[in-house]
């Protein structure tokens, strides 16, 4: 193996539907975190204006977002538009001052990523960027790695997807992994619907981002499911929230009700398993003699898991779904929003990991087969 390939630090990119996190292997935290969307101007610019065809990440500010049509090219673990995704990756390299021709690149992926998508990404990195080496790491596996555990369940609650991934003694138990298309974006949409009923209208893609901010700053989960009478009491408590244009909206029970969709989606017309259900189901699909340590090593990751009250509510809901003798323990590391990236940073920096990298020549010679051969 050509050691010159590893003369430079690897670039680690955690691809998320809401945010991308990027930095260099061996670092403690990512150097770059930005919203994983593309903004295109809605209006024709005057000839004297300094206008671009599209804007990426931190190029889109609160003051300019209203003039943009916002689009997310990566949703529910699937790339919707490779050309737009290409712009996110190029922006990443530019902001990191990292040359993809000189650095091995580790990308995170969900456990259900399609082989065809991996091939398409590999072609983009090897053929368009001339990347010397590439690796796809399952986000849940490396998140547990970053937490210092080798046995446990990663519950990753992101923006568009939630997934529960059991790992035993370092082995990812693939058949037991569970996922549901229910996550933070559903809370945002639920909050928007509730605010619409209260007389507030947010319709554009830019205004959707405002609702997302309201969710992040004000929404919380109650310790247990509450009845309609309690929600009616909450209506009396008003909370003023200032919008970017200095106008205000009044929030009351919406703050508490919007996140309930994660715990009881059927109440909102969704025929989906709840977050506690996918967690309990994933453990119960594991062989009986392996379950005990998994119940006590549940690790949270993902931005939506940062919501106030989420860990406390989750443990109560899970206990209702599993055997009474199960000792359920949930770990909620404060840095869990970047846990997957940290795992990739640690992994890519290990000397023993060098043989796992997919080299450009290997991909040219073997194609898709090498992607199957070299994976965690």
TrEMBL record:
Coiled coil: none annotated. It catalyses: ATP + H2O = ADP + phosphate + H(+). PANTHER family: ACTIN (PTHR11937). Belongs to the actin family. This is Actin. It comes from Paramecium octaurelia.
């Amino acid at each position: 193996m050509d050691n010159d390939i590893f003369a430079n630090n690897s670039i680690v990119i955690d691809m998320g539907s809401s945010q991308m996190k990027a930095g260099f292997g061996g670092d403690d935290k990512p150097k770059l975190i930005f919203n994983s969307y593309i903004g295109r101007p809605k209006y024709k610019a005057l000839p004297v204006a300094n206008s671009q065809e599209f804007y990426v990440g931190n190029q889109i500010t609160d003051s300019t977002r209203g003039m943009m049509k916002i689009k997310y090219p990566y949703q529910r673990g699937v790339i919707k538009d490779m050309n737009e995704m290409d712009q996110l990756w190029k922006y990443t390299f530019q902001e990191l001052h990292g040359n993809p021709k000189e650095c091995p690149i580790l990308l995170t992926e969900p456990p259900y990523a399609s082989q065809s998508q991996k091939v398409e990404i590999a072609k983009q990195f090897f053929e368009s960027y001339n990347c010397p080496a590439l690796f796809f790491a399952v986000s849940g596996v490396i998140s547990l790695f970053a937490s210092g555990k080798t046995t446990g369940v990663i519950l990753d609650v992101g923006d568009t997807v939630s997934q529960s991934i059991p790992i035993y003694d370092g082995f990812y138990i693939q058949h037991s992994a569970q996922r549901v298309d229910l996550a933070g974006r559903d809370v945002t949409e639920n909050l928007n619907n509730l605010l619409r009923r209260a007389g507030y209208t947010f319709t554009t893609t830019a205004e959707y981002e405002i609702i997302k901010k309201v969710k992040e700053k004000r929404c919380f989960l109650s310790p247990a499911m509450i009845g309609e009478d309690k929600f009616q009491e909450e209506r009396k408590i008003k909370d003023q929230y200032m919008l970017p244009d200095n106008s205000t909206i009044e929030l009351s029970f919406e703050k508490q009700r919007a996140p309930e969709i994660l715990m009881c989606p059927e109440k909102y017309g969704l025929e989906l398993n709840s977050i506690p259900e996918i967690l309990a189901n994933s453990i119960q699909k594991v062989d009986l003699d392996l379950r005990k340590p998994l119940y006590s090593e549940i690790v949270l990751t993902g931005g939506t898991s940062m919501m106030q009250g989420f860990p406390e509510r989750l443990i109560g809901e899970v206990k209702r779904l599993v055997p009474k003798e199960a000792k359920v323990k949930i770990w909620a590391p404060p840095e869990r929003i970047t846990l997957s990236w940290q795992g990739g940073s640690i992994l890519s920096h290990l000397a023993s990991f060098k043989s796992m990298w997919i080299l450009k020549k290997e991909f040219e010679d073997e194609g898709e087969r090498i992607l199957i051969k070299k994976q965690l």
